Amino acid sequence: MIRRIPAPVAAFAAALALSLACAGAAWAYHTNFTGAYCNYAAPDYTNYFTRDGSMTVALRARWEGYQWGGGCWNDDDVDQSPGDPVERSDTRGEGPDCSGFTFKVWREDLDTSNQGAWQWGMLRNVHGPYSAASFLGGAGAPNDTYPKSALIRMDALASTDHVGMIYARNADGSDQIIEAKGEAYGVNIWTRTYRGSSAFGGVRRVGWDA
Amino acid sequence: MKTPRPSPPARRRLRFAAAGAAGAVAGLAAAAVLLLGPASGAIGDLPSPPALDPARIIDATHVPPVLTLPGEPVTLRYDIYCQPPAGSAGDECDAAGTVYVRAGDAGAFRPLPLALDRRAAEGRWAGRVPADIARSRDGFSYYAVLRNRAAGTEMTLPAGGAAAPQRAYAMSAPVAVELGAHSFGRTRAATARPFSALWGNGPSDAGLEGGREAEPVGPGSFVVAADGTVTVLDQVHHRALVEAPGARSLRDVPLDINGTLADLAGGGDGPLWVLETAGADAPLLKEFARDGAAQDEVPLGERTAAQLRLGPAGPVVKEYPSEEWVPAVEDGAPLGLRAQRRAAEPLRAVSATRQVAVVRTGDEVRVGVVGPAGVERAWRVHSATPMAEVQLAEPYADGVLLVIRTYTDVRGEFEVVRLGARGLVSSFALPAEDWAETMPLSRFRLSGSSLYQLGSNPSGVHVDRFDLEVRS
Known about the structure:
The complex is a heterodimer.
Chain A: H1 7-29, H2 33-37, E1 44-46, H3 51-59, E2 71-72, E3 95-96, H4 98-105, E4 117-119, H5 132-136, E5 143-146, E6 156-158, E7 163-169, E8 175-182, E9 186-192, E10 201-205
Antiparallel strand pairs in A: 1-4, 2-3, 5-10, 6-7, 6-10, 7-8, 8-9
Chain B: H1 8-45, E1 58-62, E2 67-68, E3 75-82, E4 95-103, E5 110-113, E6 115-116, E7 125-128, H2 131-134, E8 140-148, E9 153-157, E10 166-170, E11 175-178, E12 192-198, E13 209-211, E14 214-217, E15 222-224, E16 230-234, E17 239-243, E18 251-254, E19 262-266, E20 272-276, E21 284-288, E22 294-299, E23 304-311, E24 314-320, E25 324-327, E26 329-330, E27 333-334, H3 337-343, E28 348-349, E29 355-361, E30 364-371, E31 374-382, E32 387-396, E33 399-407, E34 412-420, E35 423-431, E36 444-447, E37 450-456, E38 460-467
Parallel strand pairs in B: 2-10, 11-31
Antiparallel strand pairs in B: 1-3, 3-7, 4-5, 4-8, 6-7, 8-9, 8-10, 12-38, 13-14, 15-16, 16-17, 17-18, 19-20, 20-21, 21-22, 23-24, 24-25, 26-27, 28-29, 29-30, 30-31, 32-33, 33-34, 34-35, 36-37, 37-38
């Protein structure tokens, strides 16, 4: 004999299943770091910006997390959203992705026609309008393609998939790169050989004062 | 007007619908509890944002000269980074520094204050080495103490200070080598392909990490044993893949590693060493028995670990910002951080008494074999095409074998350069084969008279062998 499932039970089960499915696995993992800590405060305009100053902006993100499509972090040297599902902008984790990191460290404007420099707070949740590929192409008034052999610190090496900024040269000809590498990596300084790779091109932020 | 009363079947349908709606609401509520509960808990578990300590950030970079020419003036340059002082109009660190320098390896260090070179785009804190020291036939050694004046914090570079200073060696009569302009596309074919694996998750596949806005990352490193057995670090699958000459299939060795980009050394009859460069505990050196059983773990002291090699006395790690080779074990026992700092060496030992020095500066690569009495043999290699990193510099026959990346803005290849007592013995080009990322300086290994290259393409990863005694 087949017993009919009571309507309330069936509806309950269906709604529960549908809700869980719609929410997806990401929600169950994420820490909602951006919801808890990040803000949308206006940036401060600065009429003097230097490679040294942008290095300091970058160093405050070191050892923080990586969030695909993100751009908000604190400065406690801990990834507060480890193990988020990758390539999901809805996981609300801590940290920038590679292009969001470059945008914020280079202190750029959301208006791509503006070369001006803006100091964004660490906890300001902003990614900016550029992808790695658009940095590679020198998109936007503040960005320009540049010969790789002439790149110096705080210039960037970009591919269609990734962008990182030069932190220092090494004696063996490799570079130290400061970058938001990926969910398992976070933000840090690593030795890389992007400069000689045909996948990467040179990019320079326009308008440094020093 | 009175509303008509529903018939009994209609009342049953209404009750059914109402019960269903109540169930659905309960289901949604339950889903919300399930989903928001853990999320809310996670929010509650997050620590408050820390009170920022501006003194905490201090870092510095420096490119050591490594090899100098007779009479060549030497300026030591540093960049120093820290938080600008509160209320400062600018956004630069209020820094200062002193380099302590001496001729050769012994004697008292002489202090040399660093001055800010405002015209320089990098290496802005500079100090010119006194001529009498720069001209020393023994070269010179030095270390720097760099300060954040506003916060009163300082750092020593290299970290071992006077106990493990940086070293510049004097080349007395380097042999000049002209490579001319590189001809792209004229690369040498491999002698053999002793290892290959497709990308995938099967028993004999190699793991690939990547996706949108991420470079593809493949196996990070490899080693070649004396019998030609190739071991590839398949870190994505937490294992090593081993292919012995003549074997019909790959053998895998499970490794307890975190799965991020890592370097590999050892193998053969000895243990495997894995250098983890990313993750919460990195940089960290791990030792595994031949069957993959975990042995020791050695925490490393500096922020960046770039290379792992097996030296005459055990594994050594190239660390930054000191830019020195740091021994991780001594007599089989892990070294503590303080002991590591004090035992660091500017050059990598290639035998009990010899080291190889290499530096790329502008359009020139300088390379020297350094023995107990100083530089025994040196070369200056010029190229009309830009040169990037030196991937490999190893003693070979009566000279050195170099692998240098040469590039333009749109192309890149490797140039294999064999140097002998009189200069260039031979050279040939190899394709970049760098579709997937590896550890930056672990694409080549020299074993006997064969050079091995770790390469990849969209299908998979491979190791190619190039026999050096065969004319190209």
